[in-house]
C-alpha cells in the first residue's frame, strides 16, 4: 500500500514538474501576434517610428542616425540578456546608456508599457 502511494506521488510530482516546464517555455517565447504588433509599431511613423533612425528588415526610407537593426555580429539577446532590460532601454535609453541619442519612448509616454513589450518582442525576434 505504501509503495503504491509513493509511486502515485512520484508520478504526480513528475507531471507537475513537466507542466511547469511547458508553462515556462510558453511564457518565454513571445506570441507571434506580439511580434507582428511590435513590428507594426516600429514601422508606424506616428508611434514607434524606428525607421526614422534605423534600417530594419523590410523597412523603407530608413534613417541612418542609429545603427541598422539587428546590428551585425551582435544580437539583442547578447546586448541586453533579458527582454525586460530591452524594454527598460526602450522606455528610458539614457538610464542604461547615458550617451544614448534615442527618444525616451516610455518615459515620455509615446508608447505604453504593453507597446514597449511588443516592440521588444519584435526586436528580440530579429536574427
TrEMBL record:
The keyword RNA-binding does not apply. PROSITE patterns: CYTC. The keyword Protein biosynthesis does not apply. Pfam families: Cytochrom_C. Residues 1-28 form the signal peptide. Keywords: Heme, Iron, Metal-binding, Signal. It comes from the Bacteria. Residues 33-127 form the Cytochrome c domain. One of its GO terms (molecular function) is heme binding. This is Sulfur oxidation c-type cytochrome SoxX. It comes from Igneacidithiobacillus copahuensis. The gene is soxX.
Amino acid at each position: 500500500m505504501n509503495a503504491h502511494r509513493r509511486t502515485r506521488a512520484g508520478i504526480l510530482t513528475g507531471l507537475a514538474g513537466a507542466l511547469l516546464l511547458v508553462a515556462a517555455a510558453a511564457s518565454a517565447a513571445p506570441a507571434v501576434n506580439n511580434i507582428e504588433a511590435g513590428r507594426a509599431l516600429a514601422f508606424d511613423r506616428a508611434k514607434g517610428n524606428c525607421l526614422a533612425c534605423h534600417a530594419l528588415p523590410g523597412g523603407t526610407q530608413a534613417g541612418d542616425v542609429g545603427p541598422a537593426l539587428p546590428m551585425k555580429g551582435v544580437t539583442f539577446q547578447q546586448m541586453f540578456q533579458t527582454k525586460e532590460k530591452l524594454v527598460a532601454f526602450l522606455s528610458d535609453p539614457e538610464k542604461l546608456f547615458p550617451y544614448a541619442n534615442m527618444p525616451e519612448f516610455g518615459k515620455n509616454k509615446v508608447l505604453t508599457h504593453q507597446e514597449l513589450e511588443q516592440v521588444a518582442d519584435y526586436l528580440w525576434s530579429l536574427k
